[in-house]
Every structure is written in C-alpha cells, then in structure tokens.
Amino acid sequence: MTGFWEISSSALENSSVMDIPGVYEIVSEYFNNEVLERYEEEQEDAINMTYEEAVDSFTENILPIVVEQYGPDDTISQREAFNDWTDALCKDGEITQWQYENWDNPF
C-alpha cells in the first residue's frame, strides 16, 4: 500500500503544482530537498519564452505553412498546430509545463 507521503511527493514533482502561490514554501517545510531540487533544475533549464514571443514566432514561422496547406479559414487546423507546437516547446524545455497548460490558444 502506498503511503500518503509517497503520493504527495510524487504529485509535487509536477511543476504546475509547485507554481501555485505558497506551495513551494509548504513543500520546503515537509519534504526532502530532492523534490525541490528537481523542481528548481527544471525551472532553471527552461528558457521561459513569453506568451507574446511564442505567438509571434508561431505566426511568423508555422502559421503560413498551416494556412497554405489547409486554407486561411480552417481555424481548427490552426488551433491544433499551435497546441502541437507549444507541446513540442514544452518537451524541449523552451517553456515550462505551467506555461503549456495555462496559455490561451490565440486561434
């Protein structure tokens, strides 16, 4: 049977949980430093592109290809392409998990 602390420690490895105001401070009081160190390393490794930079880059580099292939009125393909692109940014460490999960899709 898995204990409460094991479940909690595992859940806190998700950076979006750690980004909630006050959670980092609470975690630092009750958990070992390993969880905090992994979170801090992830934050340092992420380039943290801003939302505006991401939208500008997508609009300049990716959107023309999507529009050429599917037409200018296919907003579903544009939304899907933006989602796939931000997923790739997250997996490559260019944005954080929190950014990926919370950014609005502009299309």
**Unreliable residue runs:** 1-9
- Give the rounded overall mean pLDDT: 77
- As an assembly, this protein is single chain
Bin the helical content.
over 70%
Strand content: under 5%
Give the termini separation: 46 Å
Total count of domains? 2
| Largest beta-sheet details | none
Shape, please?
elongated
**Counting H and I runs of at least 4 residues, what is the number of helices?**
8
User: How many β-strands, per DSSP?
Assistant: 0
Could you spell the SSE succession in H and E letters? HHHHHHHH
Structural class: mainly alpha
Cα-atom Rg, whole angstroms?
18 Å
Question: Could you characterize what this model shows?
Answer:
71% of the residues lie in helices and 0% in strands. The protein has 8 helices and no strands. The protein has 2 domains: 4-45; 51-102, no CATH class. The radius of gyration is 18 Å and the shape is elongated. Mean pLDDT is 77; it is low at 1-9. The chain is an all-alpha fold.
Kindly summarize this structure in a few lines.
By secondary structure, this protein is mainly alpha-helical.
Draw up the topology in text.
Elements: H1 4-12, H2 15-18, H3 23-30, H4 33-45, H5 51-61, H6 63-70, H7 75-91, H8 97-102
Helix pairs in contact: 6-7
